[in-house]
Specification:
By secondary structure, this protein is an all-alpha fold. It contains 10 helices and no strands.
Length: about 210
């Protein structure tokens, strides 16, 4: 019996949804096409009606996971009344995110594996990650676009690195310590920047004007 276009689209969506979760939980090489299709409630034979190869699925699933991650964190930040960086670190560097690999940041879960994949996979991840770096560049402070981009890259790398280390160690206390240390470091820098900015606003107008020229 022929599957309708609507049902085919639903099946493809289901495969991608299951793949984005299982790749993060088990690793890209930790699950084959047959088991993945079984987890999606579909037959192995139907896979190639949706994807050219496993690499094609990996590229689309990883790109999709990064896009969802990006949209989720932007939503979290925009809906929070806290400082943007404080909101991001609070929601990213916590035990719930650390312990929920299948639903968490795909770069923290798969970054090392993606680096060993083919060009299509790496390109899909790169193109979906670029907009998030640009977004972060808009919420950090800096004297120029170049400085803000550098800070955004360092910020995201710090977040990902902290999560990777926190998941790698088998000591719960050390794991929590890593998360708290990086969060405090990021938020501490932010608080320091706000304090300096607040102090500068209290200077006499002449002093502030002279500082602005330097």
């Amino acid at each position: 019996m022929r599957v309708s276009r609507v049902r085919a689209a639903e099946n493809r969506e289901r495969i991608l949804e299951v793949a984005t979760r299982l790749f993060r939980e088990r690793g890209i090489d930790g699950i084959g096409v047959a088991d993945l299709m079984k987890s999606a409630g579909l037959t192995h034979g139907g896979f190639y009606g949706h994807f050219k190869s496993k690499e094609d699925l990996i590229a689309q699933a990883c790109g999709r996971a990064v896009a969802k991650m990006r949209d989720n964190w932007i939503k979290v930040i925009s809906q929070s009344s806290a400082d943007p960086l404080e909101a991001l670190t609070t929601h990213y560097l916590n035990a719930r995110h650390r312990d929920n690999t299948g639903r968490g940041c795909p770069i923290a879960a798969l970054g090392a594996e993606v680096g060993r994949q083919g060009p299509d996979v790496r390109h899909a991840v790169t193109e979906e990650l670029r907009p998030f770096i640009e977004y972060l560049s808009g919420i950090v402070q800096g004297s120029s676009a170049g400085v803000r981009r550098e800070k955004a890259l360092a910020l995201y790398a710090s977040l990902v690195g902290a999560l990777v280390v926190a998941r790698a160690v088998d000591d719960p206390a050390l794991s929590n310590e890593v998360l708290h240390a990086v969060a405090d470091n990021i938020q501490g820098k932010t608080c320091g920047q706000r304090a300096r900015l607040s102090a500068s606003k209290k200077r006499p107008l002449k002093t502030l004007s002279r500082a602005a020229k330097t």
